[in-house]
Amino acid sequence: MSESASKQQTADQNNIALLVIDIQQGLFGKSLYKAEQLLHNINTLIDRARRGGVPVFFIQHSGAKTLVKGSPDWQLHPQLHLLATDPVVHKQHGNAFEDTGLDEALSRENVTGLVVAGLVTHGCVRAT
């Protein structure tokens, strides 16, 4: 790899962020396949992102009938590696960019690429 290609790869890595979508208590139930392993994998990804200087954004869904804001089900999972300084974006649509400040928050961090992980991959993760 040429020196300029190596510098570009480093620059690209410095402009990414990790989005952790809907890791909320109400989505962790007996029907969630390998829930403990999933949580472990997400936390490993969060920890690696932090070690690499990659900003981590947590996305939290609320709805009128499920994951009602303020309810125990709405809360982020208590074992999630969330720091008090981490940005948490609240959403009411599947797409985490719709009617939220996520785009502006990413722009402030000069983010140009995303790594996305979370629950409901066929829904909210895909929509985002």
Shape: globular
Total beta strand runs: 4
The structural domain count equals 1
What is the name of the CATH class? Alpha Beta
Name the CATH superfamily assignment.
Isochorismatase-like
Written overview of the protein:
- This protein is of the alpha/beta class and 128 residues long.
- It has one domain: Rossmann fold.
- The protein contains 4 helices and 4 strands; from the N terminus they run H-E-H-E-E-H-E-H.
- The protein has helices spanning 3-13, 35-51, 102-108, 121-127, and strands at 16-21, 56-61, 88-91, 113-118.
- A 4-stranded parallel sheet has the order 3-2-1-4.
- Helix 2 (35-51) links the parallel strand 1 and strand 2 (56-61).
- It starts with a helix and ends with a helix.
- Mean pLDDT is 88; it is low at 1-11.
